[in-house]
Amino acid sequence: MNWSVIKAEIEYQKALERLEEIFESKTDDPEFREAELLTLLVEQYENTNEEPFPDPDSIEMIKYRMEQNNMRNKDLGMILGSVSKASEVLNRKSKLTLTMIRKINKALNIPAELLIEEYDTIK
Q1: Mean of the pLDDT values across residues 64-88?
Q2: CB-count exposure of residue 100 (10 Å: 0-12, 13-18, 19+)
Q3: Over the range 77-95, which residues count as b (16 or more CB within 10 Å of their CB) and which as e?
Q4: Predicted pLDDT of residue 120
Q5: C-beta atoms surrounding 62 within 10 Å
Q6: pLDDT band of 49, cuts 50, 70, 90
Q7: Given CA atoms 6, 12, 18, 22 in this order, what sign does their dihedral have?
Q8: Phi, psi torsion values for 15, nearest 5 degrees
Q9: What confidence category does residue 50 fall into, taking pLDDT thresholds of 50, 70 and 90?
Q10: pLDDT confidence of residue 107
Q11: CA distances in angstroms from 22 to 11, 33, 46, 78, listed in the order given
Q12: Using CA of residue 40, residue 46, residue 52, residue 57, what is the dihedral sign?
């Protein structure tokens, strides 16, 4: 198929389907150049047509990193000094303190810039 700039959702879906078929082609396969071109076309379409994801807030980032590391609330409690503190933070009942931010930054390798961002708490 002759590919050109993707301008419509249906073209985008067709490109994704074809790319999935040929994605693992090797550099000496005839489909390799087509896969390279489709990757560029799909990226360009996504960059110009899709809404960007909002940055996750501090708590969502902590939960995500905990999930990646197969951690439970008690594991975060060990980092913060108590399970109740961890529970309050994860349930948005209290804000992260500077000390907590430092500990989480070190233990979970989450950039401090993300942890200091404002987020809503539940009263």
Answers
A1: 95
A2: buried
A3: bebbeeeebbbebbeeeee
A4: 86
A5: 24
A6: confident
A7: positive
A8: -65, -40
A9: confident
A10: 96
A11: 17, 10, 19, 47
A12: negative
DSSP the chain: -------SHHHHHHHHHHHHHHTT--TTSTHHHHHHHHHHHHHHHHHHHSPPPPPP-HHHHHHHHHHHTT--HHHHHHHHT-HHHHHHHHTTSSPPPHHHHHHHHHHH---HHHHTS------
State the average pLDDT for the chain.
Answer: 91
The dihedrals phi and psi of 38, each to the nearest 5 degrees, come to -65, -40
Which letter, b or e, does each residue of 36-59 get, where b requires 16 or more Cβ atoms within 10 Å of its Cβ?
Answer: eebeebbeebeeeeeeeeeeebbb
